Recover the amino acids of this structure.
């Protein structure tokens, strides 16, 4: 039997089954192979040579959302996320050896997501489609009915492009005092196309709180897209690029996307074997903060004007489970004036977004989204906030499927809205 | 076997007959450490008639059948046997009736224990059995293993709440036993044979459970001690003072550290032992009982007594306690849990025996359990890859059970015999007892097709 660290983790699972009730895919099928316990058993079978990397094995691991709710539930502390990443890397290398990496995967992981300029070009094309009226025409003409239902749904899933970048740097709003520290914002690949305004809000909120903010342009993807899909070599290269952009230039690194944050906080593990980068990677991982975590840790200026609305919070899996940041965003929200906070039932259940899961596993994803929308309805909240672009896109799409339609916002955008409202109010006076 | 699988696909829809390598590997285990066996097929029936037909086929073709719920058992009851077909019952998860006039409920066997508890609680009722895996384990599995839990001391175990069972016997006959009568002495008491039969006498299709009114008040507290002896003595003193709390749980130092590492509920990681106690019932009784307990705990030099401020805090403490077994897996790769139980007056001796034997065989052992029931779960933290250590583990358990039996105890308090305790059963039971049990199994299952090789060698 093997003695690798990965194998120790596999053995650490004592198959007690306490992960089963929190696993979204197990809740859908009720089959053991769709549970964390089952998947770990399959990984162990491959490690033990009891099974090959079979089509069924790849399918079973592909069905996993990587939401890591099982990590929160596991008393034994099994790091399922690491196990899954390792298994997906093995699958990727296996497919590469066999020359069978899907062309779409090669195109996206190896080309599209390695240069932000390529994603921006795609974003531009999408914006043209959306804003020229072509999208409207396609929707109204009924031509979509010629396509399979799934394709029509994907068309509806596509969020509006929002790629007008905020400025590269912003000085602290408090001109009288020296800035508390210099922070850098990771703009992210998806946010940079669809949620530039969230990056802008992050920048303004931080500046408002006395930080000098640096937002380097043309950052590439943090590597999580490649990493979560098994392409570790590409992930490492992207990690090195990102570290290089910030190292020596800022005190801390701020991220407003949970998926990126969870990956960046593990750069130290990713580059542990790379002697030239290990030290910088450790610095980067230790100094990365989710924007809500940062505001909770360091405090923030209370907005003057009240919101007078009810707000609920959906926990992004990669914040709640992968980073174990559960209460910080709630604490921040509850401090906002005029926010009546309502707890969301099953707040830590995956909404089904999970990267591109809503495209690759549309049906399963919609079961989870509908469950999420039902729970949102129970809160009756005016606004639902969540700190991950994938969740924001998914919940916005949920509003197209559900009769109950709360406004969907990033928490930092809600805070900035209140700052702006307060500033306007002051101008009025 | 190919033939049999084709036949199975005629009995139930082919999509519900699983045979892929991935499926077989993921149904090869339950919650029991070290044991596994791949089945030939896993089937998901939808009606009692289908189960009946599968069992008739099994008798004709001679393949073994193993029933399974969520697969959280700790004695190997749901681990497939060679060449077997697993009947998966976890999809049978409907609560059929909650009868408030009779305080009973009909449930399908795949209903999760915690889901059921919550459903009856909404009606102001209470179903006390609460095994550690209650979030996922099923009523069917609880009945088959006669599962216990944290509240056994005052409220008893699953057996005390089963009023009737509908089941398919090994030959395919569907039998209904019991009913809503509070009193019923007609014929042999089959219920007590069925409960705890570990899937060897029949497959449950419906279970009738007894409910009780929800206690009006409860109070949960945590007492910390420097030594194991002080905690054990407190338990004896509380029982001797004629107090039967709802819960009286014990955790040793190793277990405390692991639980805190997982749950972050503020347990002091330097404590030598702790007791988790709960009193429930009429508010006056709760106040009186917990005051007396506090006094006894102080007399035994509890270093700190914390009272849960509200239900949520009490729940967190109990949930953390339920995670104890799995939390112990943090330390070493392999975690082997036992279920030694002694008459309550012998508890302190059992605890000392565990400590002594751990030192003798040079093993790391975490100890916790239902102190009020005399039911302990000494858990060996080891590495299955270390042959030499695994031999010492074996010797440790052999000697532990010898000592447990010498103290008038039992080899299993609540986990069942299954595969894990088979070799100890004959040491505990008299020859006539073994003979009666074997002849019952033979009478009901002459071809030995239902969960063969469990309980008896």
């Amino acid at each position: 039997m093997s003695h690798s660290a990965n194998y120790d983790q596999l053995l650490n699972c004592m198959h007690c089954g306490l992960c089963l009730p929190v696993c979204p895919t197990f809740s859908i099928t009720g089959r053991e192979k769709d549970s964390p316990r089952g998947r770990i058993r399959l990984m162990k079978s491959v490690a033990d040579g009891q099974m090959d990397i079979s089509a069924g094995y790849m399918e079973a691991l592909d069905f996993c959302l990587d939401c890591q709710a099982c990590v929160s539930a596991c008393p034994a502390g099994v790091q399922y996320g690491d196990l899954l990443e390792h298994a997906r890397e093995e699958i990727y290398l296996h497919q590469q050896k066999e020359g069978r990496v899907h062309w779409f995967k090669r195109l996206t992981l190896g080309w599209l997501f390695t240069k932000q300029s390529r994603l921006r070009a795609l974003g531009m094309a999408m914006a043209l489609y959306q804003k020229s009226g072509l999208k409207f025409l396609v929707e109204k003409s009924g031509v979509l009915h010629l396509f399979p239902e799934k394709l029509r749904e994907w068309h509806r899933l596509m969020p509006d492009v929002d790629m007008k970048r905020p400025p590269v740097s912003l000085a602290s709003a408090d001109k009288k005092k020296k800035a508390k520290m210099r922070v850098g914002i990771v703009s992210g690949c998806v946010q940079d196309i669809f949620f530039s305004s969230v990056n802008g809000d992050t920048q303004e909120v931080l500046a408002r709180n006395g930080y000098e903010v640096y937002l380097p342009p043309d950052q590439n993807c943090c590597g999580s897209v490649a990493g979560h899909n098994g392409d570790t070599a590409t992930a490492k290269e992207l990690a090195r690029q990102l570290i290089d952009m910030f190292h020596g230039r800022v005190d801390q690194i701020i991220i407003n996307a949970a998926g990126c944050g969870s990956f960046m906080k593990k750069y130290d593990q990713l580059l542990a074997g790379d002697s030239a980068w290990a030290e910088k990677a450790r610095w980067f991982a230790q100094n990365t903060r989710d924007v809500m975590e940062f505001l909770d840790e360091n405090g923030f200026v209370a907005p003057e004007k009240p919101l007078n609305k009810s707000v609920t919070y959906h926990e992004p899996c990669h914040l709640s489970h992968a980073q174990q940041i559960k209460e910080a965003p709630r604490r921040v929200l509850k401090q906002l004036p005029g926010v009546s906070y309502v707890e969301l039932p099953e707040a830590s259940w995956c909404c089904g977004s999970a990267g591109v899961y809503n495209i690759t596993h549309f049906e399963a994803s919609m079961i989870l989204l509908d469950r999420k929308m039902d729970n949102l309805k129970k809160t009756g909240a005016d606004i639902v906030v969540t700190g991950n672009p994938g969740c924001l896109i998914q919940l916005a799409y949920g509003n197209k499927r559900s009769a109950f339609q709360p406004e969907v916002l990033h928490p930092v955008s809600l805070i900035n809205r209140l700052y702006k409202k307060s500033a306007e109010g002051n101008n009025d006076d | 076997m190919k033939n049999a699988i084709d036949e199975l696909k005629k009995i139930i829809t082919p999509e519900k007959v699983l045979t892929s390598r991935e499926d077989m590997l993921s149904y090869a285990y339950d919650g029991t450490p070290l044991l596994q066996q791949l089945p030939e097929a896993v089937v998901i029936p939808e009606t009692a008639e289908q189960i009946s037909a599968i069992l008739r086929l099994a008798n004709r073709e001679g393949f073994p059948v193993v029933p399974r719920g969520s697969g959280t058992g700790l004695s190997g009851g749901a681990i497939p046997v060679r060449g077997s077909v697993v009947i998966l019952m976890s999809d049978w998860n409907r609560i059929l009736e909650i009868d408030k006039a009779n305080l009973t409920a009909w449930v399908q066997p795949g209903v999760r224990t915690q889901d059921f508890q919550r459903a009856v609680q909404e009606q102001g009722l209470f179903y006390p059995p609460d095994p550690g895996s209650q979030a996922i384990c099923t009523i069917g599995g609880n009945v088959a293993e006669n599962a216990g839990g944290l509240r056994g001391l005052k409220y008893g175990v699953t057996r005390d709440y089963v009023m009737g069972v509908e089941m398919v016997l090994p030959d395919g006959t569907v039998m209904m036993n019991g009913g809503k009568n509070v009193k019923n002495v007609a014929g042999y008491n089959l219920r007590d044979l069925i409960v705890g039969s570990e899937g060897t006498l029949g497959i449950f299709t419906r279970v009738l459970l007894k409910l009780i009114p929800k206690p009006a008040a409860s109070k949960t507290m945590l007492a910390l001690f420097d030594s194991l002896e002080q905690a054990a003595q407190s338990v004896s003193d509380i029982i001797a003072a004629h107090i039967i709390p709802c819960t009286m749980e014990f955790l040793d130092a190793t277990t405390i550290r692991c639980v805190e590492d997982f749950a972050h509920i503020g347990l002091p990681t330097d404590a030598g032992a702790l007791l988790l106690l709960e009193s429930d019932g009429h508010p006056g009784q709760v106040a009186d009982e917990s005051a007396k307990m506090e006094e006894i705990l102080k007399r035994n030099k509890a270093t700190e007594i914390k009272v849960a401020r509200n239900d949520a805090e009490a729940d967190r403490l109990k949930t953390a306690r339920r995670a104890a077994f799995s939390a112990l897996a943090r330390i070493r790769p392999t975690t082997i849990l036992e279920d030694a139980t002694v008459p309550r007056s012998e508890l302190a001796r059992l605890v000392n025996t565990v400590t002594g034997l751990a030192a003798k065989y040079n093993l790391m052992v975490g100890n916790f359990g239902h102190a009020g029931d005399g039911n302990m779960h000494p858990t060996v933290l080891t590495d299955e890859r270390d042959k030499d250590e695994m031999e010492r583990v074996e010797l440790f358990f052999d000697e532990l059970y010898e000592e447990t039996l010498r103290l008038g105890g039992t080899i299993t308090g609540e986990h069942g015999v299954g595969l894990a305790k088979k070799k100890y059963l004959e040491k505990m039971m008299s020859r006539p007892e073994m003979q009666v049990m074997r002849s019952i199994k033979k009478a009901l299952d002459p071809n030995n097709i239902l969960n063969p090789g469990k309980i008896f060698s």
